[in-house]
Specification:
With 294 residues, the chain is α+β, with helices and mostly antiparallel strands. The chain has helices at residues 2-10, 15-24, 29-36, 40-47, 57-70, 75-85, 111-157, 170-173, 175-183, 187-192, 207-216; strands at 218-224, 228-233, 239-245, 249-255, 259-264, 269-273, 276-278, 284-285, 288-293. Strands 3-2-5-9-8 form a five-stranded antiparallel sheet, with no helix packed on it. A four-stranded antiparallel sheet has the order 4-1-6-7, with no helix packed on it.
Length: 294
């Protein structure tokens, strides 16, 4: 009992020093609690050296350090006094024993070589597949081009329907076709000489062909009483006629129907198609009109 009292007396002051410094600054326990964000019970335990009411030593040392900083005291003597009262029995190192044997790689061990041996063949395989697919697509495209060229050539060799052989006698049915047949070599001679019949630019077209073409063409007459703009396109969208007509003028166009007509100043324009008057007024909007003539 005497040894315990003597040891307590020999300990450096801690709680008493904190309480005296707080009173010297005229600070209440509540003000310290608000500043340090500690409970009143923890502050009273620090000032009364009741360390059993405080958390583990590491946290308590943090309380002492912050309390000393608030009171502008040297924290080191206070921490030393706390270590004498509450020794820190926390182990400095952690030893873990395991039943798994420790494996040490030899200098010659190269685990990356195993992964490289797997990855490199995969990369080469992917490259080969892509190259093969590209070559296949190019071959298919070339084959398609050859087929298209062959079909176009065969279609160009086929004679027009108007030149087909009539059911009756060639000489009696169509004298012009008979003259054309006389100018061409016979199939037997062409086959023996290795010739292929192809249409020629200097062939004489029968009169019947020109007559049929002329029949399919339509006549369009445009008359204006005032200055007007007229545009006519064919089925493919090609411009056949485009002109600014002067007042009280007339113009005529012959083309293959259907015809697509666009009129500016439609109120001053009249159309005559194949000998018949065209209703322009019903197609007029904002003095412009678009018509399809078939």
């Amino acid at each position: 009992m005497t040894d315990e009292i003597r040891q307590a007396v020999e300990w450096p002051p801690l709680g008493v020093a904190l309480a005296a410094a707080r009173n010297a600054k005229n600070m209440s326990l509540q003000e310290v609690s608000d500043s340090l964000r500690l409970s009143l019970k923890q502050i009273s335990a620090l000032e009364s050296d009741d360390f059993s009411a405080l958390p583990q030593p590491m946290a308590t040392r943090g309380f002492i350090r912050n309390y000393a900083r608030l009171l502008e005291l040297d924290a080191q003597p206070l921490l030393d006094s706390y270590r004498l009262r509450v020794p820190d029995n926390t182990p400095t190192s952690l030893n873990v024993q395991t039943s798994i044997p420790h494996v040490q790689l030899a200098k010659k061990s190269r685990p990356w070589f195993k992964y490289a041996a797997i990855v490199i063949p995969l990369v080469l395989l992917l490259w080969y597949v892509q190259a093969y697919q590209s070559a296949t697509l190019e071959t298919d495209a070339a084959s398609n081009n050859e087929v298209v060229s062959s079909v176009s050539l065969n279609e160009s060799v086929t004679p027009p329907a108007s030149l087909a052989e009539p059911t009756g006698s060639p000489a009696s049915a169509n004298p012009a076709a008979s003259n054309l047949a006389d100018t061409l070599p016979s199939p037997a001679v062409a086959a023996s000489d290795g010739l292929q019949l192809r249409p020629s630019s200097d062939m004489t077209v029968p009169a019947e062909v020109n007559a049929n073409t002329a029949v399919n063409r339509a006549t369009l007459t445009v008359s204006v009483t005032d200055k007007a703009w007229v545009q006519v396109k064919d089925k493919s969208g090609a411009v056949l006629f485009e002109k600014m007509l002067t007042a009280n003028s007339t113009d005529k166009l012959e083309a293959q129907p259907p015809l697509f007509v666009w009129l500016g100043n439609a109120k001053a324009t009249t159309l005559n198609y194949m000998g018949k008057s065209v209703d322009v007024a019903s197609k007029t909007y904002n003095n412009t009109a678009r018509l399809t003539l078939e």
